[in-house]
Design the sequence.
């Protein structure tokens, strides 16, 4: 048995954990067909860990849904497989190519694969009849997210209406939806990046190795460091260099930049973040940089 | 993958320990438009080093392009595009920052009367309410209303921040006058703990750093107060309340007989050997085990999410409540509550709605609207007959299922409920229970 809490104090990280577990159980109890949107990134892995805790020793009462862009890092896929196997979880994989075939998205040659994830995701939710989809979004990530509810309502078109959100009081979540609508659920709403890393550190959670510093061939483009690979090749005067880098987010490999780092373990990453000068998104997501309101627009369209 | 030697970072270990062990303060801010709320929050984030370079740069460049003389810290928090266009805050925004001892969650709520529901939302989970006033204007009807709402929502700690002291020459007299007026008004409310702090959000005085401009002020800076205000004792550790959220039955060979009642502790302390009663059935049993994930723990207390095992095979399902035989709420279908109405179509007698209370859902009918509370004057209008958007009143409800409730003044979890429009599915009301029978 673990220690008695003489002062009955719960640390903030334990409070966050308790809140997230409460959310998972509430959704599992009230929704017909929930699903956990799994990106392979650290936030969705932390979600998995919390879900594991919420239902132990039962298996997760919902499957995982992953949008396969065909552009995922191998390290991310292998970590996913290891988690899925350990938890005995069910996995639903939606691919962009199938979504194009099914007409959920149109490949006009101009839209990035990353952007086509939106239609693919919405198509998969609709086809499978999922009524609630857990996402790893955090309110500290971005200004538009700061106002999003834990239960975030999506209409028939999967759209978010920021001006018309339901009030969300105490820990009383309202999961009512109409046929065809679904709810996005954000159990990590109140976690910060530092909380996530401290939790990974404390729980020794398995995450993809590319989060840790390693040597990689990169080129510098538009102020971002991109990993050289089949899709990313030097052009113009760009120079290929081998640098010690790590990824702070793990999206589509053509869009996700890495940062120079010496941090090879969680403690070193935490040290880095504790003194970080640039936000996660600002540093490494090519698709957020277009405009200040980019995220808000994409959320309205039904992006994660 | 390159093989690099593992470099343990002791600074990282330390930072992780701080993040793990810090405690938590949730606070809600309220102020009228232009009192400086967004600037203050920007200042707290900036001075506690919670702002990143790219965020600050974005704000600086926007300020410049708008032709401002100084960096508009308010831009750090004003998120949605429509807000930026209108230059106002229209919804609750959550902000985060941390100091070595505490993590803070700010619910930044709009001040206007037409956004009362947003303020009620932000205050519902707050340990502390921060009301901002403009020193030049002193207390306004709005600031009184903010205090009334915070007291109604039983936010246990209140800070009145008198802002823009730089614009009144740091006058002690101005501070004293507002302080006096507010204290007098507060006697009519339920405010267990009050602090009045003179600040300049724009210049930072008494926000994080003590001001040299207010030698006459000997109280804490805002940040010092936020860091040290004692919130642990606000929880109820006496009256055991465990709303059952989910029954865990693995139905696997390994855990064949496993039957755990999962939920978040709403009050009291639960431990092995405790005699308990399950409501509404009234069956009694004894706790055989308390678990957190795969580990047996000695005690569970608020707000832990745990799994409880009972010695006897009693019938327990979601919506039930585990309490103590000599200290249990009485199942009630007649509910007397204060309700904040949150939608355009008014609340009227005989109206039927869905109600969610802890993990219980049922239907409720409005039997009577006893009075509408004027949140500015505290006047009770007995003739009101209905409650419009953003109005608050005392209402009698009859529910289809018994609620296992406590007065809101005793327990904010078992004393609160939401009302849902059955046709639209929208949350239309927030209720705080006075009593049930
Ligand atoms: N002189 C002075 N101006 C302030 C102070 N705090 C805020 N302001 C200004 O008051 C205006 C409104 O501030 P803002 O933070 O947007 O107010 P909000 O509507 O309450 O969020 C802005 O022009 C601020 O720069 C202060 O302490 N002193
Ligand atoms: Mg503002």
Sequence:
């Amino acid at each position: 048995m673990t220690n008695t809490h003489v002062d009955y104090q719960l640390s903030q990280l334990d409070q966050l954990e308790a809140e997230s577990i409460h959310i998972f159980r509430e959704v599992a109890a009230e929704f017909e067909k929930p699903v956990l949107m799994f990106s392979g990134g650290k936030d969705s892995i932390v979600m998995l860990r919390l879900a594991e805790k919420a239902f132990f020793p039962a298996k997760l009462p919902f499957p995982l849904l992953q949008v396969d862009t065909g552009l995922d890092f191998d390290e991310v896929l292998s970590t996913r497989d290891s988690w899925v196997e350990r938890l005995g979880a069910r996995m639903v994989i939606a691919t962009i190519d199938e979504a194009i075939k099914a007409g959920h998205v149109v490949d006009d040659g101009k839209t990035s694969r990353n952007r086509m994830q939106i239609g693919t995701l919405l198509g998969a939710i609709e086809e499978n009849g999922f009524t609630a989809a857990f996402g790893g979004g955090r309110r500290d990530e971005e200004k538009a997210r700061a106002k999003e509810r834990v239960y975030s309502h999506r209409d028939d078109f999967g759209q978010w209406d920021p001006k018309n959100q339901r009030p969300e009081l105490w820990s009383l979540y309202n999961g009512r939806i109409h046929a065809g609508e679904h709810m996005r659920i954000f159990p990590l709403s109140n976690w910060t990046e530092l909380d996530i890393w401290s939790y990974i550190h404390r729980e020794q959670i398995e995450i993809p190795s590319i989060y840790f510093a390693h040597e990689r061939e990169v080129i510098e483009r538009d102020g971002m460091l991109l990993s050289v690979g089949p899709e990313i090749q030097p052009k113009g005067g760009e120079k290929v260099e081998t640098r010690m880098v790590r990824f702070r987010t793990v999206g589509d490999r053509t869009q996700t930049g890495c940062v120079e780092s010496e941090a090879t373990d969680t403690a070193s990453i935490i040290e880095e973040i504790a003194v970080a000068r640039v936000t996660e998104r600002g540093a490494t997501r090519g698709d957020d940089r277009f405009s200040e309101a980019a995220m808000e627009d994409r959320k309205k369209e039904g992006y994660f | 993958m390159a093989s690099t030697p593992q470099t343990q970072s002791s600074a990282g270990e330390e930072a992780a320990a701080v993040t793990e062990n810090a405690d938590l303060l949730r606070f809600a801010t309220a102020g009228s438009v232009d009192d400086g709320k967004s600037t203050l929050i920007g200042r707290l984030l900036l001075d506690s080093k919670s702002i990143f370079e790219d965020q600050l740069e974005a704000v600086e460049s926007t300020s410049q392009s708008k032709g401002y003389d100084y960096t508009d810290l308010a831009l750090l928090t004003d998120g949605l595009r429509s807000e930026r266009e209108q230059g106002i805050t229209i919804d609750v925004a959550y902000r985060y920052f941390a100091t070595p001892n505490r993590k803070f969650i700010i619910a930044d709520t709009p001040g206007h009367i037409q956004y009362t529901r947003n303020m009620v939302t932000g205050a519902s989970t707050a340990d502390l309410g921060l009301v901002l006033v403009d020193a030049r204007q002193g207390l306004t009807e709005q600031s009184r209303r903010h205090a009334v709402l915070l007291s109604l929502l039983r936010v246990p700690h209140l800070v009145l921040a008198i802002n823009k002291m730089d614009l009144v020459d740091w006058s002690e007299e101005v501070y004293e006058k507002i302080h006096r007026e507010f204290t007098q008004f507060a006697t009519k409310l339920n405010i267990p703990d009050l602090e009045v702090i003179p600040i300049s959000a724009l210049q930072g005085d008494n926000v994080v750093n003590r001001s040299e401009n207010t030698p006459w002020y000997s109280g804490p800076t805002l940040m010092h107060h936020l860091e040290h205000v004692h919130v642990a004792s606000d929880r109820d550790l006496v009256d055991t309340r465990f709303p059952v959220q989910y029954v865990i039955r693995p139905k696997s060979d390994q855990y064949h007989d496993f039957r755990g009642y999962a939920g978040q502790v709403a009050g009291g302390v639960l431990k092995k050997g405790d005699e308990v009663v399950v409501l509404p059935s009234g069956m009694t049993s004894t706790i055989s085990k308390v678990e957190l994930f795969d580990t047996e723990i000695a005690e569970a207390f608020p707000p832990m999410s745990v799994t409880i095992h009972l010695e006897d095979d009693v019938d327990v399902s979601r919506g039930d409540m585990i309490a103590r035989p000599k200290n249990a709420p009485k199942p009630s279908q007649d509910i007397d509550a204060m309700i904040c109405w949150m939608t355009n179509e008014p609340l009227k007698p005989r109206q039927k709605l869905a109600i969610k209370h802890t993990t219980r859902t049922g239907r409720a009918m409005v039997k009577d609207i006893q009075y509408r509370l004027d949140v500015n004057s505290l006047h009770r209008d007995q003739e009101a007959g209905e409650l419009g958007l953003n109005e608050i009143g005392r209402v009698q409800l009859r529910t289809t299922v018994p609620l296992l409730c406590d007065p809101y003044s005793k327990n904010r979890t078992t004393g609160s409920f939401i009302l849902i429009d059955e046709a639209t599915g929208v949350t239309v009301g927030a209720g705080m229970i006075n009593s049930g029978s």
The mean pLDDT of chain B is 90.
